[in-house]
Write a structure and sequence with these properties.
heterodimer, A: 63 residues, alpha+beta, Alpha-Beta Plaits, two-stranded antiparallel sheet, globular, B: 404 residues, Cytochrome p450, 5-stranded mixed β-sheet, 3-stranded antiparallel β-sheet, 10 strands
Amino acid sequence: MRVSVETDKCCGAGQCVLVAPEVFDQRDEDGVVIVLDEAPPAEVHASVTEAAQLCPAAAIALS
Amino acid sequence: MTQTSAAAPAWTTRRATGCPFDPPPARSGLLGREPISRVTLWNGGTAWLVARHADQVALLRDERVSADNRRPSYPSLSAASEATRAHNRAFITMDEPEHNEQRRKFTGDFTIKRMEALRPRIQEIIDELLDAMEESGPPADLVTSFALPLPSLVICELLGVPYEDHAFFQRASAYLVDTRSTVEDALTASTELVEYLGDLVERKVSAPGDDLLSRLATGYLATGLSTREECANEARLLLVAGHETTANMIALGTCALLQHPEQLAAVRDGDPRLVAGAVEELLRYLTITHMGRRRVALADIEIGGTTIRAGDAVICAGDLANRDPEVFEDPDELRVDRQARRHLAFGSGPHQCLGQNLARVELQLAYPALLRRFPGLRLDRPLTEIPFRTDMAVYGVHELPVTW
């Protein structure tokens, strides 16, 4: 699994950080998403998939 | 609102007697029968009422759908909200790219990290309010003794608004969320509130503190990046949204739990993980933003077998999405141990609630603290005599008489 984000679309809702804190964080200054692990291990794939689904701005892409 | 139809039923928020937690009976059956239907609004215009979860998520994320309430066909809530829409000119009623530019002035103040760091202070406020409630009762009105002062104190500290002015801004804010307010009363309340907040932000330019409005004052007003009017409108949005919503979730959520003793016991005795899930479930089940997310289509959009035409008004009824059996099993059941995270209580799309993680922390701390402090908590009046907020922009209870 590869994780990529469109930071322009990110609205800083923080859903991804709530669901998959191992993989996502937020910039302190504006809450925009930071990807901590672009190729996360299998054990967090389910939560990363949920984070992508929950993202209100559809800013997370998985491949 | 490009067409009118005598057949379209009127928009209503009236609930069935004895079912204060369920969506209005006028909309029951729409999910299965007519997922996209027409409703008539207070001013005689019509709007598309979107029922299904998937259709709402698609529309709310769609850039061809506008949140700009200055558009002629925008489905406003009431005459009062239409009259005050100039004051509503804040990121919540802007489209991209302006929306996200403006919203990002504030997103840094609402990150998960910042909200988590507030936990000890919020717990302290909760404990003090519960101490006072215990000393002066029973009985008590849960709204005035706990549900309203808690989020009000928290948002005041976060924004840097003096809490001693709460009688003023709570009264003004109540006019703004009441769909029955006269145009005159709503305009007066709204103008007083933006004047008050404009003055406050201006004072913070020369005497800033460690709060959000001070950062707005020094980073935007003092530098000319924002006008006084823009700052005041944004402050008004954050102040009103910051306490009306969470206050009603605390009171209505408690009321709902009191009707479901097993669910209440699970929340009272649950670990933080269960409580966090229970908060999502209460947000889903109650959907206090019962007026729906209001939009205008900017292009012809095919959705759910229907074509919404450019210029048409759209209402995404979150209360129906949150009862959609395609997403939630036995959706009419309150089950605090279910996976409810996909609920649309905070909306969806780029406008999804900015303060949602503040609300989560407040609610995760408030329910268990209240239920543990008063294990014998119960309504002091039959459920049928509780005044529910049917006509307010945010649903809930006007008061919740409790004893213990």
